[in-house]
């Protein structure tokens, strides 16, 4: 077997039972009594309605899952498509939603244990008292959290057996029940609104299918098995819910269920409707089987939810929405013990503070928010249609179905109990605040949606563009990429980059870009990797050593490409560089012979700030900075400031003017003050710009010039003014071109 | 000794373990080393932790080993039985021996996790070399 086959070992049945196992515990074994009391004969309809609403989202989740079978499921899709703001909402909602759901399942579990052992009443600890059911729930939750903390792989395998057993018990219950069913037993039907409210109450029975997507990376042949499991689990549980509810309404006399709840002594544990009905219809054996089934069902629901929530934590930590420290794996148990421990603590807390309806309502509300966002994510992915988006399963009738799915999910929120709804929205709001205050400066991943909007900023309305730009992540960390080609200039470039990175507490990303002729396939170049590796390794190791002398973090990468300039641009994007420091000269990336082709590759805008060094020995002791204002000399100023801080350089600021020299001097004074270069020397010259700069540069060791709007690299290879200047002076020249959208200064100040 | 440590497979389970093993190996004269991490699979049931998560962890372990030994070969294996998979890996790379460093931990923890090091020396089909961990207690967990 290949590694791929070994890593993806969840078969179709196992995937299906994750969904069914998570859902069935709540739907059958906890809620039917309340649903029948509330909606009468419409209870069954309420469950079917829930199934239909869930189905729209199940379709969307299936398509997204086959396109991106990644750990984290729903959170991952939302974050990927809609960006980290919504990703933060989806992640927190999914995580806390699962914790609420687990608490709910455990209270259900507590009711079963209480029923079996005849426990009731409350237990007091001094001024605090807690019901017996909750006490059992707490113990049960602690047990399942412990099992997941220590990580027994047997529990996962039990899931299949448990689900098959449950389905078998319910099949027998339903079949035998039909013999006794009679229409005249049906309780009175309630209004549509009550039915919808009932759907809101029982929607916690439809959370499990989305947990299948959180383990999507482990499913065999996900293109086929994931949609089958997701959609199949929703169909299966909807049918089971509907049939069981019909039997529970039609096979017992009217008022039987309501009677169970009457005359309960205060503090007495509420009866479990499905067990009572089973016992009434088919005797103690069925009552016992259902009791046992309920224990297994609620336990497996909680267990699967705790497991799924740790995958969501991982995916959130990977994207730095939460601290990756949460994802630490236990050295012995091999479990994400911190994530499980925290989730466990939340579950215990929720059991203590919430009653059954609040827990189920919060779980439903939070998941409905995710479902709405999931449908939105699907619409965005289809609309933007990025190249790598290739789902095996396609939602039919696009965009109708996901729109209906999203609208229904958000609409059903209106029928979730108001306190639970408030809690759900409170958590969503807190997740937005969390993004703004915490995650935004840390996460680096940008959503497909905002990428799309920002890349078409000319065509789309300004409001959309500024909204997208306003919430995009800034990664927090300042990354300086250095594309290396000629070993001779490695030291100077890395020194410069490290000095800048050090000033910003950032990282140096040294990349060796290996260009191979177009005739050579990249794959065959990769086969020669040994030779390339040796050169790369040597170069990058030196780069690492040089950068480490500055005490900055270093990353190294080797990139094989046909085109060196294009590769630099691509690498700057993929490695989320904030600044690229590269060399230029006859023996650097753009050799004269390649000028024509290099020119074709250039796009107008650079993907981040660029500094291009014409290296004649790096010596920042005397910096000459000619300026007439403008964004690119903002970048030059910022670089000068950083070099000054690192090397205590003398900075001279030069303005060449034909107007009144006093105006120019005044301009330079303001400009230097604005750019933190107060102690720079000010020099004003008149006459020809180029020769004035060349003359002034005679005293300098480094000339720092901003590019013009046209694009620095374009000018560099086309031999225009800037380049002439580069050849006219004897010192090293550093050319600065600022990225248009998110430049150095905006990022930092 | 040179023959036995000609080409060794070093199974690692955590970053600390990788560092301790690498340090232990650095004190020996050896030929080539292949650091291996086994992602334990449940075999048809959801795993204790996600595969992607453990692949990332494995890379961190390999980094820790590289920090001590420089460039070493590394590989991730997947299997339901960690010990069997380690010996499969040893066969794959035609290793002269499998090198382990004691991981400490009390009896109870070893019982709960099924002590891998113990099984390695009782169920081995090729030489297993147990190297002493650092004396100053840096090794182990």
Q: Please, could you describe this protein's structure?
A:
- The complex is a heterodimer of chains A (749) and B (141).
- With 749 residues, chain A is of the alpha/beta class.
- Chain A has 3 domains: 3-437, Amino acid/polyamine transporter I (Up-down Bundle); 477-601, 3-Layer(aba) Sandwich (Rossmann fold), CATH 3.40.50.620; 615-733, Rossmann fold (3-Layer(aba) Sandwich).
- Chain A is built from 30 helices and 12 strands.
- Chain A has a 10-stranded mixed beta sheet with strand order 5-4-3-6-7-12-11-8-9-10, sandwiched between helices. In chain A, strands 1-2 form a two-stranded antiparallel ribbon.
- In chain A, helix 2 (12-29) runs parallel beside helix 11 (222-250) and helix 6 packs across helix 7.
- The two termini of chain A are 54 Å apart.
- Chain B has a 5-stranded parallel beta sheet, sandwiched between helices.
- Chain B has helices at 15-26, 51-69, 82-92, 107-113, 116-122; strands spanning 7-11, 32-40, 73-79, 97-100, 128-130.
- The longest helix of chain B has 19 residues, at 51-69.
- Chain B is 40% helix and 20% strand.
- Chain B is α/β, with parallel strands linked by helices and 141 residues long.
- The radius of gyration of chain B is 14 Å and the shape is globular.
- Chain B is built from 5 helices and 5 strands.
- In chain B, helix 1 runs parallel beside helix 2.
- Chain B has one domain: Rossmann fold (3-Layer(aba) Sandwich).
- The chains are: A alpha/beta (749), B alpha/beta (141).
- Chains A and B meet through helix 1, helix 8 and helix 13 of A and helix 1, helix 2, strand 3 and helix 4 of B.
- Chain B: This is Universal stress protein.
- Chain B: Residues 6-132 form the UspA domain.
């Amino acid at each position: 077997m290949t590694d791929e086959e070994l890593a993806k070992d969840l078969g179709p049945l196992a995937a299906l039972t994750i969904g069914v196992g998570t859902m069935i515990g709540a739907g059958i074994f906890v809620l039917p009594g309340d649903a029948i009391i509330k909606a009468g004969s419409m209870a069954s309809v309420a469950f079917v309605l829930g199934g239909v609403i869930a189905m729209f989202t199940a379709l969307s989740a299936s398509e997204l899952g086959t396109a991106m079978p990644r750990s984290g499921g729903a959170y991952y899709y939302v974050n990927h498509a809609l960006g980290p703001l919504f990703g933060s909402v989806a992640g927190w909602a999914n995580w806390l939603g699962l914790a609420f759901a687990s608490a709910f399942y455990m209270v259900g579990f507590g009711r079963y244990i209480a029923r079996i052992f005849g426990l009731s009443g409350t237990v007091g600890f001094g001024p605090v008292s807690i019901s017996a059911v909750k006490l059992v729930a707490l113990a049960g939750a602690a047990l399942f959290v412990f099992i997941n903390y220590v990580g027994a792989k047997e529990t996962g395998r039990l899931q299949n057996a448990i689900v098959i057993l449950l389905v078998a018990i319910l099949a027998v219950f339903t079949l035998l029940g039909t013999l006794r069913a009679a229409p005249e037993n049906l309780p009175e039907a309630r209004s549509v609104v009550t039915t919808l409210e009932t759907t809101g109450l029982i929607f916690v029975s439809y959370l499990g299918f989305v947990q299948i997507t959180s383990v999507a990376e482990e499913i065999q042949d996900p293109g086929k098995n994931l949609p089958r499991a997701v959609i199949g689990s929703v169909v299966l549980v909807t049918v089971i819910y509907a049939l069981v509810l019909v039997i529970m309404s039609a096979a017992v006399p009217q008022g039987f269920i309501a009677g169970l709840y009457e005359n309960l002594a205060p503090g007495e544990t509420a009866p479990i409707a499905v067990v009572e009905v089973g016992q009434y219809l088919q005797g103690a054996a069925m009552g016992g089987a259902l009791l046992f089934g309920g224990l297994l069902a609620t336990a497996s629901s909680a267990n699967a939810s705790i497991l799924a929530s740790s995958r969501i934590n991982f995916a959130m930590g990977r994207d730095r929405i939460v601290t990756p420290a949460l994802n630490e794996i236990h050295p012995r148990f091999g479990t994400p013990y911190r994530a499980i421990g925290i989730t466990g603590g939340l579950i215990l807390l929720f059991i203590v503070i919430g009653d059954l309806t609040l827990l189920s309502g919060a779980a439903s509300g939070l998941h409905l928010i995710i479902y709405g966002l999931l449908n939105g994510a699907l619409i965005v992915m289809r609309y933007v249609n990025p190249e790598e988006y290739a789902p095996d399963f396609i939602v039919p009738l696009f965009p109708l179905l996901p729109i209906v799915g999203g609208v229904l999910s958000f609409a059903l929120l209106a029928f979730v109990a108001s306190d639970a709804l408030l809690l759900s929205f409170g958590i969503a709001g807190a997740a937005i605040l969390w993004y703004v205050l915490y995650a935004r400066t840390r996460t680096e991943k940008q959503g497909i949606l905002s990428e799309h909007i920002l890349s078409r900023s000319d065509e789309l309305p300004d409001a959309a563009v500024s909204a997208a730009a306003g919430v995009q992540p800034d990664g927090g960390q300042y990354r300086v990429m250095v594309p290396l080609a000629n070993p001779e200039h490695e030291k100077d470039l890395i020194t410069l980059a490290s000095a800048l990175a050090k000033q910003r507490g950032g990282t140096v990303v040294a990349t060796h870009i290996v260009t191979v002729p177009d005739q050579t396939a990249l794959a065959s170049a990769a086969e020669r990797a040994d030779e390339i590796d040796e050169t790369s390794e040597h170069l990058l190791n030196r780069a690492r050593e040089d950068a480490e002398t500055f005490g900055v973090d270093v990353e190294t990468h080797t990139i094989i490409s046909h085109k060196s300039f294009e590769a630099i641009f691509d690498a700057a994007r993929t490695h989320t560089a904030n600044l690229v420091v590269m060399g230029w000269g006859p023996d650097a990336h753009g050799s004269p012979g390649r000028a024509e082709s290099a020119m074709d590759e250039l796009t107008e805008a650079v993907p981040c700030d660029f500094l291009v060094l014409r290296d004649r020995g790096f010596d920042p002791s005397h910096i000459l900075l000619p300026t007439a204002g403008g964004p690119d000399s903002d970048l030059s100023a910022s670089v000068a400031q950083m070099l000054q801080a690192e090397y205590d350089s003398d900075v001279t600021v030069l303005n060449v003017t034909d107007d009144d020299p006093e105006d120019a001097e005044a301009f330079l004074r303001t400009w230097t003050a604005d750019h933190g270069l107060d102690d720079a020397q000010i020099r004003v010259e008149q006459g020809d710009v180029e020769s004035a700069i060349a003359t002034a540069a005679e005293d300098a060791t480094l000339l720092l010039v901003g590019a013009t709007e046209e694009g620095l690299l374009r000018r560099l290879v086309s031999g225009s003014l800037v380049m002439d200047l580069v050849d006219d002076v004897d010192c090293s020249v550093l050319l600065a071109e600022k990225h248009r959208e998110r430049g150095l200064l905006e990022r930092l100040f | 000794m040179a023959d036995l440590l000609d080409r060794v497979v070093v199974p690692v389970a955590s970053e600390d373990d990788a560092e301790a093993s690498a340090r232990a190996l650095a004190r020996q004269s050896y030929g080539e080393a292949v650091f291996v991490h086994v992602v334990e699979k449940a075999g048809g049931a959801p795993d204790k932790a996600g595969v992607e998560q453990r692949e990332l962890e494995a890379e961190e372990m390999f980094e820790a080993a590289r920090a001590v030994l420089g460039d070493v070969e590394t590989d991730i294996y997947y299997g339901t039985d960690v010990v069997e998979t380690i010996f499969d890996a040893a066969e794959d790379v035609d290793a002269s021996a499998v090198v382990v460093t004691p991981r400490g931990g009390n009896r109870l923890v070893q019982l709960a996790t099924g002590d891998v090091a113990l099984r390695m020396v009782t169920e081995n089909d090729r030489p297993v070399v147990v190297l002493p961990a650092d004396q100053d207690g840096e090794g182990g967990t």
